Amino acid sequence: xxxxxxxxxxxxxxxxxxxxxxxxxxxxxxxxxxxxxxxxxxxxxxxxxxxxxxxxxxxxxxxxxxxxxxxxxxxxxxxxxxxxxxxxxxxxxxxxxxxxxxxxxxxxxxxxxxxxxxxxxxxxxxxxxxxxxxxxxxxxxxxxxxxxxxxxxxxxxxxxxxxxxxxxxxxxxxxxxxxxxxxxxxxxxxxxxxxxxxxxxxxxxxxxxxxxxxxxxxxxxxxxxxxxxxxxxxxxxxxxxxx
Length: 243
Known about the structure:
about 240 residues; alpha/beta; six-stranded parallel beta sheet; three-stranded antiparallel beta sheet; about 35% helix
């Protein structure tokens, strides 16, 4: 059984209509001030930032996005005899699961945008329900249990990653025989450091990304072609033993 770990970043989801952040046309380059909307300190301190954040969540339509060929290729490899696949994702869109990856095989380093959490009592509910309240006129919906501030169940800038999820990601990385990075600039730590950790522990490191990354020199293979076609082709080669 070959253990393949896939570290996915925003680039894998651009074909699904979800903008990346740091690419040439990324959200931060188009609107540098938008980073405040996902920065915990600004979000908690400023009601106007929260109102803008809720409008952004409503208008981006992330919940309506569906998986693309790259997500489906990862799920297909996971169903291939002789392969165990684990996904470590920096994304919060849930598209790996929608493509068919079991929840238990996906580690969401930065949480999920498909749920909301109360910063006061910790109650969780669905993002769809919260957005329905925004659509109905609540500009900054409060927790229905305690009245506290609601935020997406994502790890914002200024928050720590879940140590349990990160620990599982490190364990998978160390055990992987093949480590595929797809659609990540490998600039955000600690996720970025997993590529180096995989190489250090003997994994074959493959990087599929449009832009150069700091770990390209460590990689056994670097692919610059569009992810939607390059990743399915790569994973088919892995599956048939020709990669």
